[in-house]
Specification:
This protein is 87% helix and 0% strand. The protein has one helix at 18-134.
């Protein structure tokens, strides 16, 4: 007969070296796991710091915008006050101009009446002078 060949998986396992190899491999995995946990913790700290920085940046930006809005509201309010004062002054000036116009019209009417009176008196004097001349 022919010799019997044993497949590689059927080789006898040497159990003496196996536990030590598993122990070394476990130690390496524990070390890698600890390093990964440390890296994960550092990454989480960076994420929290970035979030905190972003929150502070947004708050500062909003505060700046609120300050600008407040400043613009103050400016708008003062402009509205100035506009109201200018409108009041214009109304006052229009009223004064209207009063002057009415006084001018009254003076013109009075002058016209005075002119009629003067003409009447002049006519009367001229008639009287004519009468005196004819006498």
């Amino acid at each position: 007969g022919s010799p019997v060949t044993v497949p590689p998986t059927a080789q006898p396992i040497n159990f003496e070296h196996q536990p030590r190899a598993v122990s070394v491999e476990t130690d390496v995995l524990h070390t890698e796991l600890a390093e990964l946990r440390t890296q994960n913790a550092e990454l989480l700290q960076r994420v929290e710091l970035a979030r905190s920085n972003e929150t502070m940046r947004v708050a500062a930006e909003e505060s700046s915008q609120n300050l600008e809005i407040s400043s613009l509201r103050g400016f708008l309010s003062s402009c509205q006050e100035e506009l109201a004062q200018a409108r009041q002054k214009c109304k006052q000036l229009v009223s004064e101009v209207e009063d002057e116009r009415r006084r001018g019209e009254q003076a013109a009417a009075a002058a016209s009446d005075d002119n009629s009176e003067v003409r009447n008196q002049l006519d009367h004097f001229q008639r009287h002078a004519s009468e005196l001349q004819t006498e």
